[in-house]
Specification:
The chain is α/β, with parallel strands linked by helices. The chain is built from 16 helices and 19 strands. Strands 2, 3, 4, 7, 8, 11, 12, 15, 16 and 19 form a 10-stranded mixed beta sheet that branches. β5 and β6 form a beta hairpin.
Length: 517
Amino acid sequence: MFTDSQILEIKNYGLQVETVEKQIERFKIGFPTINITATATIGNGIIQCDEKEALKYAKLFDKKKKRKKIVKFVPASGAATRMFKMLYTMLETYDSSEESYKKLFSNKGLHTPAGFIENIEKFAFFPQLSQILASDGYSIEELLQKKDYTTILTYILTEKGLNYGNLPKGLLLFHSYGNIYRTALEEHLVEGALYAKNHNKDVYIHFTVSPEFIQGFKSKVAETKYSYQETYSVKYYTDYSIQKPSTDTIAVNVDNTPFINNDGSLLFRPAGHGALIENLNDLDFDIIFIKNIDNVVPDSQKDKTILYKKVLGGILIHYQSAIFKFYDKISKSKHLSDKRFRLVTKFISEELQFKFPEGFETWPRNDCKEYILGILNRPIRVCGMVKNEGEPGGGPFFVLEKDGSQTLQIIEKAQIDTKNKQQLDFLNASTHFNPVDLVCGIKDANGKKYNLTEFVDAESGIITTKSKDGKELKALELPGLWNGAMANWNTIFVEVPIETFNPVKEVTDLLRKEHIQ
């Protein structure tokens, strides 16, 4: 399939030829769609805590975390180009003419060019923008008055000014506190001090960052951390990793032949956030909080976020303790008694919401014992779920596994056969969606770290259509970090308030009340 020079190229890239051949075969056969058996809802797959229960779990977390080593794991994206898509369109189409002004500014509303310009002074980056413009002889007030939006946008997006179109979200100013301004990265430092502080007041935060931005992250942390350490009486330990090139996948043409770049080389592409299971696997902590870089709020809005992070952590500790006790007793006993069989299967069915294969109770008892131990001896994740209010993203479902069991999974629309009416009905009946709000336990009952790559469902990747140099191509995404990469974990879904989900997908999201101090 490959020439000698291409084989050498693959090896130099850090990949195995056999792996790349399997990827090309995957393009040919595709991925199987997920077989959903039910939508997870409150009382059937999703736990709902009242105020009393929430406080109970939060207190449990605060009490038990003293013996745990905790880290915040923050997947930080590459350049925030998509966040400024509307501004790029404005820059390309606005020419200061009355015609282009009417075309761009006829629509009103928060997420429109008019909404952006009319509220530009409310952005945390406005003072810095004004200062940079002034240093080059411009007055932003005069530019606004003259409707010279081209200069303003140029100074926001390009290296002439803020260069925001080429920076990651973590390094953008998100929130204002009087004359103090915080980036998204700094908000994660603050959050870490408020719920992920270890017993000795150490705060560990791990950022996954594109290689070109690591130095920027390190510089921002070095510049700001001492102030936050003093304010919150903590000590920060920040760590960084990149999405490993060894997890990249080959791209192919529409006919599934390798895509060749203009210089004659093969094209390899990052394989989506599912590749980050490798980064997660390199960490050695008892509790790992996972939350996206852009899902942060100013201090005035943080109370519910902090409370429910602790709630999720308390639920993790509660269920992990029960799992460990069952595992310890069953693994040490020669035979699985009828009483213990009933107790453990009830716990797994009712608490972990795992549905055994049909006829499981008739299996030979030793086979049942091994199967049950296999269920108990897995990493565990507690996933916050918010009510579905039309946001894009995966949702919580029961899924049929190859052995006939049914498990809780986070499923993306792209994984579902929407031509199948029943599957589509399950999708449309979804009441909650995944805000990427996870707390993970990656150690077994003896404190030994799991090899997380052993719990990935390799069959749940996604093939997408992209383009390069004007040519269409097909790209292969590995099973998503909280989808197929964690498919064989024990999963617990918990409803969390919508107030805990405030992502910044486009720049005007920063104008929403949740982001105003």
